[in-house]
UniProtKB/TrEMBL annotation:
Name of the protein: PTS system sucrose-specific IIC component
Major localization class: membrane
Compartment list: Cell membrane
Domain PTS EIIC type-1 per the UniProt entry, residue ranges: 137-489
Keywords of the record: Cell membrane, Kinase, Membrane, Phosphotransferase system, Sugar transport, Transferase, Transmembrane, Transmembrane helix, Transport
Lineage: Bacteria, Bacillati, Actinomycetota, Actinomycetes, Kitasatosporales
Length: 505
């Protein structure tokens, strides 16, 4: 089967298991997950969905998220969207279908399923829809669409740096530098566009307001006694400028007569938000950006090992709580300022601890074929930085191994942080990948060779620490007795992979 047919088949297999096209309200994807908005959560057949070969796991949040892995999700999503559109187009002209006799008439089972789905959705939202988390989710929604460009340009920047250091292809390196830097030079415009889109304004007006930040002519503007510089304030300034533009635009829409709205509203939006950006936001955001860069440098130069231990150890819990989204604008600000973020390689050690823990679980539960099968299928994605299958399918349901996985991440983070403290910066030119997938994006202040060596050694420390912590401290005697029963014993029974974990822990 060709790659195109394989991705089409995956999409076609997923669609009926999520309730069909009529149950899908929105389709999007991030680095690893197909994110679906659903009308009725009760129509989803979870176990059959998880059993699909291409599906690495599922996560419920404000959207229903199907983990497919990097690369795969970007190819499956358009196939899935096309299937949804085609199915909706076929059903649109038809008159309302008669009640299904198997589901009752009108007010029977259909309403019960709808009520059940609404209850499940409300329960999930109650846990994850605090104002702070909703705000962080909106910030993440602004930056997630930019990640593919950050990755592509970051890899080109790394390739260009290698060619420059080797004095190869001198006629090509200026072109590569232009490709790598062009997007970063205009990233404020894209941030402004997506900010306005996320907060309910006109996206192009958000981009227009944010574009003044990167315009070369701002060097002639004086604010707070200083001349501005192009790019000052960066993505933080763009966020503030576009958000203010949305507020002004909505104010105008409520008050400006419809007959002149098309002329007045865009003009007032760009004028008011633009002036506020030039004479206030750019300077203030620039100061905050400088503080963020200085704080990261100070943190790792003075407390590198300790800071790395905390960051590497706490990152998995932050992901579970959704608080890691607050780091996205910080990463982007560091990349804008220094060319790379020193935080991401440390945080990536959390994935190394998770992999080490999974290997230890594999050996400790030598007779539990269901868990070992899950680990075998999820381990290689884990090495490449896709940790959801191991987290949600193995360590988190077990409990203690999740904590020991965090311990492995802490020791890996401490190792990389120590080298930062000793003067060897280990950074990433883009956000998104981790694990082995981060190698092409590495950069630092002492050459690529040393940077790669420190990061690789940090991964090894994370693997070993996660393995040892889990092997020796990840299980109580009771857990081992219950989870590692012989295959033919009553404890095993005829259960599906993963069911025993949910029952015993």
């Amino acid at each position: 089967m060709s790659e195109e047919n394989k991705h089409h088949a995956t999409a076609a297999a997923i669609l009926p298991l999520v309730g069909g096209a009529a149950n899908v309200t929105s389709v999007a994807h991030c680095m690893t997950r197909l994110r679906l908005g659903l009308r009725d959560r009760a129509l989803v057949r979870d176990e059959q969905l998880k059993a699909l070969q291409a599906v690495l796991g599922v996560v419920e949040d404000d959207t229903y998220q199907i983990v497919l892995g990097p690369g795969t999700v970007a190819r499956v999503t358009p196939e899935f969207e096309a299937l949804v559109e085609a199915e909706n187009a076929r059903s649109a002209p038809a008159s309302p279908a008669p009640a299904d006799p198997d589901r009752g008439s009108g007010t029977g089972t259909a309403e019960a399923l709808a009520a059940q789905g609404a209850a499940l959705k409300a329960e999930r939202k109650a846990k994850n829809s605090t104002p702070f988390k909703l705000f962080l989710r909106r910030i993440a929604n602004i930056f997630v669409p930019l990640i593919p460009a950050l990755i592509g340009c970051g890899i080109i920047a790394g390739l260009n740096g290698l060619l420059v250091n080797l004095h190869w292809l001198p006629g090509v390196t200026p072109a590569l530098a232009a490709m790598a830097s062009g997007f970063m030079a205009l990233i404020a415009v894209f941030v402004g566009y997506h900010t306005a889109k996320e907060f309910g304004g006109t996206p192009i007006l958000g981009g227009a307001v944010a574009s003044v930040i990167v315009y070369a002519g701002v060097a002639d503007v004086e604010a707070f006694g200083r001349h501005l510089s192009p790019g000052q304030g960066g993505v933080l300034g763009a966020l503030g400028a576009a958000w203010l533009g949305v507020y002004v635009e909505k104010w105008c829409r409520r008050r400006v007569p419809e007959s002149v709205d098309v002329l007045v509203t865009p003009t007032v939006t760009v004028l008011v938000a633009g002036l506020a950006t030039l004479f206030g936001l750019m300077f203030l955001a620039g100061e905050v950006s400088t503080l963020i860069g200085d704080a990261a440098d100070w943190l790792l130069s003075h407390g590198g090992a300790g800071a790395g231990f905390l960051l590497g150890g706490l990152f998995l819990p932050l992901v579970m709580l959704g608080l890691h989204q607050a780091l996205i604008p910080i990463h982007t600000t560091l990349i804008e300022g220094a060319g790379f973020t020193v935080l991401l390689p440390i945080l990536a050690m959390a994935g190394a601890g998770q992999v080490g823990a999974a290997i230890a679980i594999y050996y400790r539960l030598s007779r539990n074929t269901s868990i070992r099968t899950t680990i075998k299928s999820a381990l290689w994605p884990g090495f490449l930085g896709v940790g959801e299958p191991l987290i949600y399918g193995v360590s988190l349901p077990l409990g203690r191994p999740f904590i020991t996985a965090c311990t492995g991440g802490a020791f890996g983070g401490a190792f990389v942080g120590l080298f930062n403290q000793l003067g060897t910066d280990v950074g990433s030119t883009a956000i998104g990948p981790s694990g082995w997938a981060l190698f092409p994006l590495l950069d630092g202040n002492h050459g690529l060779g040393r940077t790669v060596a420190v990061y690789a050694a940090g991964l090894l420390v994370g693997y070993v620490a996660g393995f040892l912590a889990t092997y020796y401290f990840g299980f109580t005697r009771t857990m081992l007795t219950e989870l590692d029963a012989a295959p033919d014993s009553p404890a095993d029974g005829d259960v599906a992979p993963g069911e025993r974990v949910a029952e015993k822990v």
